[in-house]
Amino acid sequence: MRVPCVRVPVEAGEATRTLLADAGLLDGDREISVEDGDIFVPVTDAEAVPDEYDVVEREAAERTGQVTPADVLGYEPSYERLGDVAIVDVDDPEEARRVAEAIMEADFPCETVVNRASKVRGEYRVRDWEVLAGDGTETVHREYGHEFLLDIAEVYFSPRLATERHRVIEQVAAGEHAVDMFAGVGPFAVPMAARGADVVACDVNPRAIEYLRENARRNGVSEQVTAIEGDVREAAGEYEGWADRVVANLPHSASDFLDTAVALAGEDCVLHLYDIQHEDDPFGPGERAVRDAAGDEYEVRVETRREVRSYAPHELNVCLDVRLSRV
Known about the structure:
Blueprint (H helix, E strand, L loop, with lengths): L1 E8 L3 H10 L10 E3 L2 E5 L11 E6 L9 H5 L5 E4 L2 E4 L4 H13 L6 E5 L12 E5 L4 E6 L2 E6 L10 H8 L7 E4 L8 H6 L3 E6 L2 H13 L6 E5 L2 H4 L7 E6 L9 H7 E14 L5 H11 L3 E15 L2 E12 L1
Parallel strand pairs: 6-7, 11-12, 11-14, 12-13, 14-15
Antiparallel strand pairs: 1-3, 1-4, 2-3, 5-6, 7-8, 9-10, 15-17, 16-17
């Protein structure tokens, strides 16, 4: 039977499958297939698929012989996969355990199931987890051909931003100088280095820096990544005027660091500023803040205004790609 499928490169398959599942668009009754380096993920509603994805009609066989969580529960539970950890968000403890048991019973590549036990909080942006099945919260996440070791209880990581990270990384050219101001375990820094950039990556969380160094080693880019533990406003002082590209992915707070971002910028620099704002004016506050920080020293040109995802009712997570050219 011919059905609509999202076509992406194989290395983007898991990130895409996760995004489509989160959006309720994954057709679980049809098999995912691979052909000539592309993966084809069946979807239930082609019109609802985000515009950046290529949707094609093709034959997709019915799934047979595999037990899904829905087969066990009688309904499709909502869960997110990060490496071999399945993440659920269920308020009722008894129902959460039923979902965990169903995921573990299903033919699903999973070693641990956890339930969100708190909101993201604190300087390190981590949350509490309740382990419902399996043991341990460390895992290896694979994204666009790279792998990242991390512990979700000790560091912040969002697999939902894989497509956005890839969009930025695809802009990086060999020989660039790039600074990741809030690097985490390296999902921006490591792939930028793999494209041939020299990367300075900062984070205040010492465990994130440990994982970042390990992930640079795992992906063969240790020589191109300088990992610095500490507040970027203090830690990266020796790199003033050095950067061709700056990533500032700390929504809610990145605008507080714009003076540092401008100080890091070289003669011509692209700043990727992530922000969370009300839907009535999602880009204006960030644009004004960048222009204020740049002052008369740089010409400011906004190259991209992008809505990354919905963050909360009437609030959007957005990205501004801003070119700073020294006057």
